[in-house]
Amino acid sequence: MNAPTGRRIRLAVVFGGRSSEHAISCVTAGSVLKALDRERYDVIPIGIAPDGRWVLEADDPERHAITGPDQLPAVDADRAPVTLTRTGTGAGIVVSEPSAPPQELGDVDVVFPLLHGPWGEDGTIQGMLEMAGVRYVGAGVLASAVSMDKAYMKVVLVAAGLPVLPWTTVTAREWAKDPAAARARVAELGYPAFVKPARGGSSIGISKAHSAEEIDAAIEAALLHDPKVLVEVSAEGAREIECGVLESLDGGVDTTVPAEIRITGDHEFYDFEAKYLPDEATALDVPANIPEEAASRLRALAAEAFLAVGCEGLARVDFFLMPDGSLVVNELNTMPGFTPLSMFPQMWAATGLDYPALVDRLIALAMQRDTGLR
């Protein structure tokens, strides 16, 4: 895999962003930056600050790490601003230092958008890159947008004949005008119920409402992160099983061995602390200790879900293995985490693809993609 001119592949790693998952995006970027082979790639780290400013960030993986609950990494908005400009062959990067003429870093061959949540994982940056005619890692505009919006994702999966949990949505407008109607729909679902931002991730803003007395606070907590809230039935007694999906270079779809998340200690569900803080009591079984028939069925469903929403590149598909042995698709993540504790890289490592090889394959997939309609 080489750049068209024989030089190193010029790779822009974009991370941070305006969503509540800013810190997790920085951690993901740190892990990817550490894994990249600098003899193969000319790496340009680009950070998007919480206020939306684009800057030339430090190529320092250790700077982008979580060191404690209150010590989360963030993009340094005071660094040199950068802009992505349209060129005759795609897109180029220009750096603007104070009291200095703009510096052109040359054309970008491919962008690795390591952004989680809105304004990045939801099709927005994908659309910008499509307009610029530059290749990028991961799903396109539609698949990114559908998978980010958990309510629309369920609509698409149901239309494809895939099993999901019953749900309803509550918007900020409805909650302000007619909260009684929203409460009535939730009551029809029954309790306990999970309440989450419809377009969020990393378990930020999620609550488990055990009764009608808890639903108002749960909805209001989710509305702090998204004006659209998803309320769904809690899969009581279910096991959380996940599967990684990756395009193959010949156009096929590959899946990982399934893995299971087991929450131990004091956590009722897989919340932010359980996911990202190493001292928390979370166990990961790779592969999951489930019957071979269930694992095979789960991998087939993961590939179906990937294709149903039109994914490209990669996705992590999360399932509930219900007490009766049935499988339910929980959600798709088109840019799953790449932190040291993240499920996606660990599942691929257990399937025979280590972290550097996984990163290389994602870039190779992006490099062979057409920049027009596909």
Plain-language structure description:
The protein has 11 helices and 18 strands. The radius of gyration is 21 Å and the shape is globular. Strand 2 and strand 3 (54-56) form a beta hairpin. By secondary structure, it is an alpha+beta fold. The strands form 4 sheets. Strands 13, 14, 15, 16, 17 and 18 form a 6-stranded antiparallel β-sheet that branches.
SSE arrangement:
Elements: E1 9-16, H1 22-35, E2 41-48, E3 54-56, E4 82-87, E5 90-95, E6 103-108, E7 110-114, H2 124-132, E8 135-136, H3 141-148, H4 150-159, E9 167-171, H5 172-177, H6 179-189, E10 193-197, E11 207-209, H7 212-223, E12 228-233, E13 239-247, E14 253-255, E15 259-263, H8 272-276, E16 282-285, H9 292-308, E17 314-321, E18 327-333, H10 343-351, H11 355-367
Parallel strand pairs: 1-2, 1-7, 7-8
Antiparallel strand pairs: 2-3, 4-5, 5-6, 9-12, 10-11, 10-12, 13-14, 13-15, 13-17, 15-16, 17-18
Q: Keyphrases for this structure?
A:
26% strand, 374 residues, single chain, five-stranded mixed sheet, 18 strands, globular, six-stranded antiparallel sheet, 30% helix, alpha+beta
| Weakly predicted, low-confidence segments | none
The total beta strand count reads: 18
Separation of termini?
Answer: 21 Å
Let me know the largest β-sheet.
6 strands, antiparallel
Number of helices: 11
Q: What level of helicity do the residues show?
A: 25-40%
Mean pLDDT: 88
